Amino acid sequence: MKVKGRAMHRFLILGAGPSGLTVANTLLDRGVDDFIVLEKEDEAGGLCRSEKVDGSPLDTGGGHFLDVRRPSVNEFLFRFLPESEWDIYERDSRIRVNGQTVSHPLEANIWQMDIDTQIEYLMSISKAGCVTGKPMPSSFVEWIRWKLGDKISDDYMIPYNTKMFGDELNELGTYWLNKLPDVSFEDTLRSCLEHRAYAKQPGHARFYYPKKYGYGELWKRMAARLEDRIIYNASASVIDFDDHLVETVDGRIFEGQTIITTVPWPGFKVLRGMPSSVFERIKDLKYTGVVISYCGDTLDSKAHWIYEPSPDKDYHRLLLRHNFCPGSKGYWKETRIGRFRDEEGMISFTNEYAYPLNTRNKPEIMDELIKWSESRGVYAVGRWGEHEHYNSDAVVERSIQLAERLIGFTEKI
């Protein structure tokens, strides 16, 4: 179909990260091939891209792993990178706090600390609001103190989250904190008495990682199937909701009957046709970027990653690739932009968009934005389309569901 001399595609997909690639491949699976994908970089994968550094892969967007908890998602992805090309690991993540290193989550593993420190933490947790029956507060910092007590809050949770998300922690809501491990005071006390953790592990308790490649290899293979349906170096700058077109930074124009965006809303220069009352609220969406930097030393630890709350360190997390990427050495640091201290000769990768922030007003903003956009034939999915801190397995699941929903809306295959 031609409109105004340009090809009108049935689907126009913005972004070739995990979400956009999944939507596109799901459409192909269902017999729909009238689509194109616009990608701002010169290769696919988004935050999950990898580069070869010092002879081994390094994930340039930070630590990304494939969780085992969504078998249908893994079955979909193993079509591109077969299960035989992955190793599976039991998560070993740790926290450095006050000169001691303990397993994550801290409140389930303080038994690994010296006895005096254990007593300090137990006494603090016993006074926490959730233990003494105080009402649950609505601000992030107060919630942390209410849930975990002052000592874990002051030694770990507040400094770590400040390093990762910024200084204004009370701009964050509490609606997303169900992602944190739920460890009761009784569980903590029992773990100290029995010297073993009592807690359900958070995400990635067991995870897959490629045997020979970085995580980015999966998304490269998904992109290869799409062939010339991906247009690289095409950074979307404008969405016109009236004429259903997208304009790139360099002035190219693409049209789609249905537009699917997986890219950050704050990155658009113009959203033509969108009411100012909706557009202005996008400016209130907060996010942070990170720098991933490589260190060639091999640390003496069996951990897969280590959380670092100390304000004296610029980074907030270490990824020890030699423990999940066979034959490699070294590790990489993840540091929020603004805290990063560059060193001469350091290999680093900057990601402007890394983590959407769960501010108090975000749910209301995104609900209004997505509902209005869908009413105009523009759909949003994934970490950035939905401005939600989803892991890659979650965005794959949601992207499959959206693609199938849209096909059902337009045509039964």
Name the features.
single chain; 413 residues; alpha/beta; FAD/NAD(P)-binding domain; nine-stranded mixed sheet; seven-stranded mixed sheet; 21 strands; 24% strand; globular
Describe the structure.
By secondary structure, the protein is an alpha/beta fold. Among the domains are: 168 residues, FAD/NAD(P)-binding domain; 91 residues, no CATH class. Helix content is 30%, strand content 24%. The protein is built from twelve helices and 21 strands. The strands form four sheets. Strands 1, 2, 3, 11, 12, 13, 14, 15 and 21 form a nine-stranded mixed sheet that branches. It has a seven-stranded mixed sheet with strand order 9-8-17-18-19-16-20. A three-stranded antiparallel sheet has the order 6-10-7, with no helix packed on it. The longest helix has 19 residues. The model has no long low-confidence stretch (mean pLDDT 93).
Could you give a short description of this structure?
It is built from twelve helices and 21 strands.
Helix/sheet category: alpha/beta
CATH 4th-level superfamily of the domain at 2-45 and 212-284 and 360-410:
FAD/NAD(P)-binding domain
Shape by Cα distribution = globular
CATH architecture of the domain at 2-45 and 212-284 and 360-410: 3-Layer(bba) Sandwich
Number of helices: 12
How much is the average pLDDT?
93
Major sheet characteristics: 9 strands, mixed
Strand content: 15-25%
* CATH-defined fold name of the domain at 2-45 and 212-284 and 360-410: FAD/NAD(P)-binding domain
Total DSSP E strands: 21
Q: Span from first to last CA? A: 20 Å
- Which ranges are low-confidence, i.e. pLDDT below 50, for 5 or more consecutive residues? none
CATH class of the domain at 2-45 and 212-284 and 360-410: Alpha Beta
Q: Helix coverage percent of residues?
A: 25-40%
- Radius of gyration in whole Å, from Cα? 23 Å
